[in-house]
Amino acid sequence: VQARANRTNVHGFSPADHAAMERHRRLDRDLRGAIAGGQLRLLYQPQVDLRTRKLVGAETLMRWDHPELGLISPAEFIPLAEETGLIIDLGRWILEEACLQASRWPDSMVVAVNVSPIQFQQSDLVAVVTEALRRSGLPPNRLELEITESSRVTDPRLVSTIMWSLQRLGVRLSVDDFGTGYSSLIYFRDLPFDTVKIDQSFVRDRTSPDAEALLAAIIELARRMRKHTVAEGIEDETSAALLASLGCTYGQGYHFSRPVPVEQLLAMLEPGPLEARA
Ligand code: C2E
Ligand code: MG
Ligand code: MG
Ligand code: MG
């Protein structure tokens, strides 16, 4: 049965391919209405100071609660939104919503928002960010934009111009998934990043004997370039302790908390003064 199901037809597509294309088309069709229909939600994953273990901020992660297909991962629908250009509207909505939420948090907390490289192709990203800050009243230094390097970037000069404008606005810039994909050190040297987000593959898979050397080197590189470091994908105390001992400033991962609704995030705040994210 398995063999037959995967057998290709005259067009070279197997039934499984057809099912995937069908789902792709369906999601594509439904995504536009999802914002208006209130099916998109933002979750917040805590970021902690690895020394004090205090909450210093949170990363915004999107969820799509599809009425018929159930919960859909951003790993599936963000690329789709990037293909169709819908990421522009979606991205604006996320920024407005995240800034508004964060404006109600303690002054020491930073909100991190993922920004697609496609949003950079649109030179009004600076205006979108400015407007989100203005409407929410959130101070610029409490917003951090996480940027993943991408092969999709067709105009690196435009990206660079926008990033310098954002930096002048006072928002923080973070390189997401550092060390993976098309990550290049030249890019890293020439762009005004404040923070390095160490990709979770370095944190979670330490079976290779060189894994720890690599972590140590990334953290040292960031330190010498005066960048903050956030390690993502911390799933156990061993990893948290190791990263802290290597000098990584902040951590994020299931060991501390999964991404949660905003009320749950705020419930994690201890009474008393919070360690500010320097
Ligand atoms: P990312 O920005 O690198 O986010 C980290 C991903 O790792 C999240 O997956 C998070 O839930 C997951 N994660 C966090 N801690 C752990 C851990 O300890 N163990 C494991 N196994 N996983 C952990 P998620 O929420 O499915 O998001 C996937 C990707 O989708 C994100 O990767 C980001 O690139 C993209 N994404 C999510 N929300 C947005 C958004 O609002 N806008 C844009 N442009 N992209 C988004
Ligand atoms: Mg991220
Ligand atoms: Mg990441
Ligand atoms: Mg990622």
From TrEMBL:
Domain EAL: 24-273
Top-level division of the source organism's lineage: Bacteria
Annotated protein name in UniProt: EAL domain-containing protein
Organism whose genome encodes this protein: Devosia rhizoryzae
Range within the parent protein: 495 to 772 of 772
